[in-house]
Amino acid sequence: LAKTTQPISMDSYEGQEVNITCSHNNIATNDYITWYQQFPSQGPRFIIQGYKTKVTNEVASLFIPADRKSSTLSLPRVSLSDTAVYYCLVAVYNTDKLIFGTGTRLQVFP
Amino acid sequence: NAGVMQNPRHLVRRRGQEARLRCSPMKGHSHVYWYRQLPEEGLKFMVYLQKENIIDESGMPKERFSAEFPKEGPSILRIQQVVRGDSAAYFCASSPEYSTDTQYFGPGTRLTVL
Question: What's the confidence (pLDDT) of residue A70?
Answer without folding.
Answer: 95
